[in-house]
Each structure stands twice: as C-alpha cells, then as structure tokens.
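Bug: token stream looks shifted between consecutive jobs. Job 1:
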Amino acid sequence: MVNYIIHLKNRMRVRYALFKKRIVKQMPQIVVFLCALFFPIMTFANPQGGSVVSGSAVITRPSTQLMQINQTSHKTIINWQSFNVSQ
C-alpha cells in the first residue's frame, strides 16, 4: 500500500511538471488572448487620418476593426495623423 501511494505521488509530480511546461509554452498565446479579451480597442487599433501625399490610393474603413488601402500606382506615400497602437 505504501509503495502504491509513493507511486501515485511520483506520477502526480510528473504530471504537474508536464502541465507546468505546457502552460509556460503556451503563455504567449494566453497573454494575447487575455489582452484581446480585456483590451479590444488596443488589439484593433488602426492608424488615423491618412492622406495620400504622392501616388494614387484610396483609404476606406468598412468597419471599426478594418481599414482597406487600395493602391493604384506603383509607389504611394501616405501621411498618417496618428499611428499609435497604445491609445
């Protein structure tokens, strides 16, 4: 009976070590998920106030999370009013 208890303790110790390795390995994905969950504005931040200075392009915003830039010339320069992801 004592050997069985020792065996269970060792087995649980090994499982806990594997669990810790898995959690540490997946930590970046967990952090990104939690940031997207609690700070949705930060994860969907887009540049604001774009104006085409050179070339030809059309900037549209079909939704708050999406911005489309259709460039029709070979080279285009766009000046942005703000390009701050932290706001």
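Job 2, same session, no restart:
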Amino acid sequence: MALDANLKLRYFLNSNVALRLKLGVYTGHEKEKVIGTFDDMYSQSTYSEGAFQFGAEYHFKGTKRLSPHVGGELGLAYAFRE
C-alpha cells in the first residue's frame, strides 16, 4: 500500500506575477524475493519521500484559454528507507 499526496498553491500578486508553492509526500512498502535461496524468502522495506518547492511565474498576455508564462522554482527534498 502506498500514499502519494501533493498540494499545489498559486497566488497572484498582480495580473502578471504569481508565487507558487508545492508540497509532496510519498510513502510506500516493498516486498522482494531474495534471489539464491531454496525457500521462499522475502525482503521487506518501507520508504518515505517528501518535497517542498517554492517558485515564481511571470505571465505574458494570452488568450481566454492560454496563459503563456515563464517561471522557476527552488526545492528541498528528503528520502528515507528502512
């Protein structure tokens, strides 16, 4: 069983500039058969990953359906395995 959750937020400072924030969490469980054994032996592990990303966007004049923009972001991430 695994959990994969993401949250994305965007806040417009004005009609052209926006700030964005992304938060993500992923956890899971793996079970693998150990190769080279006569009996059915398995190795089990759990893992967690997370991310925090902050960025900005600059939006150009677009149409009703398109919003062309450039942007960038910086992020921090972690991974943990047992």
